Amino acid sequence: MEVGEGVFAYLQRDGSWYLNNAGIIPDRKLSYLIDSAATITRTKALVAEARRLGVGDRVGMVATHHHGDHTNGNAFIDPSFLISHAAVRDELKQGFAVPPAGLFTAVDWGEIELRPPDITFARELTLEVGGRRVELRHLGYPAHTLGDCVVYFPDDRLLFAGDLAFEGGTPFALMGSVRGWLACLGELRLLDVETVVPGHGEICAMGVFDDVERYLRFVLDLAERAIDAAITPLEAAYDSDLGEFADWHNQERIVGNLHRAMAELSGTESGGTMDVAMAFADMVTYNGGPLTCFA
């Protein structure tokens, strides 16, 4: 789908676990891709679409963050260079490309190899892509992860938001920070943007960040009450009414989000590493079995 002049969004529906969106910017000299896909099969489909749109052999890539749905296909694509925020290199080493058995329903991932970034930046990096200015921005706080970056096309009023935006799906802050994500939303609202390509879900407008903010504040409120009641994140999730968020897919993420929010509010974590394995185990328990994945 063309979302700016010569800029295309590659959507993978329904946008649930590991079904991410990517970007394709064809150019006769140097094309760019924004993110890859979770499996080799899905990455091959992304490459085929990129070729159809005119992407040649010289390809630069931007990784909006380290999660496998956005990076597992990077080595298969084998770009001329890969750009990311500086935190992504370490996050790739510490995370998992292919989830442990039993965590998700069965997926044929293919032969996944990690491809670390070749170029990193701390806050901002400006590119010229197809004759237009493109700004890569880290918004200064941990959010979905430590190394989230957005890709901003100011002339097109276009933003590839990575997983700072979920349209119709539950945001996930386990590996970042709930409060940091809220701070990032304030920075995003300063941008002149008409069209947002979320990390998951349909093309949308800036209003998507209002939805994300309401959810994150809901999580913080639940976390505060859980701490006061001296109950666990899993118990708090069982006791909660998701209300307006009940129709969003991947509802089990409430458990992981509560793990993060309660740790932050208790002063034990403010972003970064924590017991991710325990949080995922609690999500599986809440879900009544392995998490559903259509990748």
UniProtKB/TrEMBL annotation:
UniProt-listed SUPFAM superfamilies:
Metallo-hydrolase/oxidoreductase
* GO molecular function annotation: hydroxyacylglutathione hydrolase activity
Q: What InterPro entries is this protein classified in?
A: Metallo-B-lactamas, NDM-1-like, RibonucZ/Hydroxyglut_hydro
Entry superkingdom: Bacteria
Keyword Hydrolase present in the record's keywords: the answer is yes
State the EC number(s).
Answer: 3.1.2.6
Q: Which UniProt keywords apply?
A: Hydrolase
Q: Does the keyword Hydrolase apply?
A: yes
Which Pfam families did the record assign?
Answer: Lactamase_B (PF00753)
Q: Where is the Metallo-beta-lactamase domain?
A: 19-200
The identity of this protein, by name, is Hydroxyacylglutathione hydrolase
